[in-house]
Every structure is written in structure tokens, then in C-alpha cells.
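Hello Y.,

Per our agreement to keep a running log of every chain we model this quarter, I'm adding this entry. I've kept the format consistent with earlier entries: sequence first, then predicted structure.
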Amino acid sequence: MKLPAAPETATALQNCPGALDGSGAREAGTGSLLRNYSIEVMPRTAARIKDFRALLPDGTRVYIAHLEGTPIEDMVETAGRIARDGFAVMPHFPARIIPDTRTLKDWITRYRGEAGINQALLLAGGAAEPSGAFHSSMQLIETGLFDANGFKRLHVAGHPEGNRDIDRDGTERNAMDALRWKQAFSERTDARMAIVTQFAFEAAPIIAWVKRLAQEGIDLPVHVGVAGPARLQTLIKFAIACGVGNSLGVLQRRARDLTKLVRPFEPAELISELAAYKVADADLGIERVHFFPLGGLEACANWAAAHGGVTIRPASAA
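Predicted structure for the entry above:
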């Protein structure tokens, strides 16, 4: 989808000293930005991983995506297994697939009691219509159940290229209003909060959006969603399904080059540009990278280890 361009969008990287000139800013910042990255899995993909400690750095935050129809038993079992391996587990709570407050309370207490989880990603979810009482992450927060059950960290979703489910007119008015509400909530709660974004394929729209957050008085840390290495056809499929907007053109242009079509697409350029900008602008709200391992968790973790320096080593190799 196409959003109204912020004045700095087209020139965001050009105005960053060292961001595009091949200087040491990229190398200096890439390892720092990748450090403490997070990644997400689904129960069915997690079940195929024999040993998470052989892939992920110790303490990595692992999000567990909750797709509609996934039994809560599978979610909790996956969360407990990964948590016992020493990782910080953050399950999704998609508002639109939660039928009522009783179900929400059941999920929360199961995660706390059976898996020892005390953090969550709260989001509306991909369902077109709510299945019950909730349609937004704000409603989940307003129940007070996360605080009552000792959840210490709550993350929320962000959309640098907009979201047609939230703003059907193509603006970002409703999305920004929601983030301002969450900013205000963060100021009156003890829970630590951050914004985790949908993945994109260009740095400039992400940087422009993070700057707009600051202009709106929103200073929650931003964890930038990045698609891990994958076949180009796979990324295009997911990008269309997830409503990724302007930066989809990066993939489409690459698809026209047959020599690149057969090779996996990697996020090296995107991450290095974000890292260089963060080095040049210390106040930029980007805190870390969140990987969507669309080409497989193992391929993504191995790529991060190869590009992140000595600090990003699997837990079992540390």
C-alpha cells in the first residue's frame, strides 16, 4: 500500500553521513544491531527443531506465533519447551481470535503456571473479523489481566508501511492514535514495552516511520521486523499475504533479474543501512532486529551468526 510520503523518506539514507558511501559505519553497526536479535516460530515448525541451543544465542527472545486454529495446548507446550532451554519466550495474543475474557484469562494463566512465561506480544491479528469480544490489542491491555498475572514485558505491533485493516483510507491516522495510546499506557505501567514491526525490504521507509513516531511523542523502542534469507518466490508470497507495501518493489525488481531469481534473498543490505543510520543518529529509536524466518529458522539463525560477529554464537557453542 502507498502511504503519503514524509519529507525525509526519499532522502533519509542520503542525508546520513556514511550510510551509503561504503564507510565503516555499516560494519561498525551491523553487529551491534544484530546483537540480541529476536526470532519467531510456530508450534509446528518448532517441533522440527531438535535443539534450539545449537542454533540460537543464549537468552534469545523467541516469539511463538499463534495462528487461528492452533490449540492453546500446543502453544503452551512449545513455550515451555523453549523456555526450559534458556530462552525468553514471548507468545502472540491475537485479539481477534480470542472469543472472550474467560478464554484470555485461561491462556494467560496457562502460560504463567505451566510454562513460566511473563511476556507477550499483543496484536489485533490477521483475522478479518473478530471471533468474539476483542478486536484490538488495546482491549487486551485494558482487561488488566496481564498485570494481574505478573507479566513484565508487553510488546505491540507496528506497521512502517501502513496497515489497511487499521487505516482503510491509506493513511496512518488510526495506527498512530493507537500507538499514542500505548505510549501513554507505557508511562503508567511497570511493564516494559516495545514496538515490533511488520517486515519490510527497504530501510528508508522504516527510518522515516521511526522519525514520525518521535514527532508524535512516541518513544517506545522499535524492534524492526526483517525477513530472514529465503527464496524470492517465498518472500513475494508472504509479502503479498501480509500486506507489505512500497518496499515490495525491491523484490519485484529483483525477480526481473534471472541471475538473482535462483539465489536466496538475504537482508544484508537492509540491515547494514539501518545499522549505519543508527550509528549516525544515536537518537534513532531502533533498538534491535526481529527476524521472520520465512526461509526456515535454521537458515535464518545461521545467517545471523555469520553476519553478526563473535557475540552471536549458538548457546551450545558459547
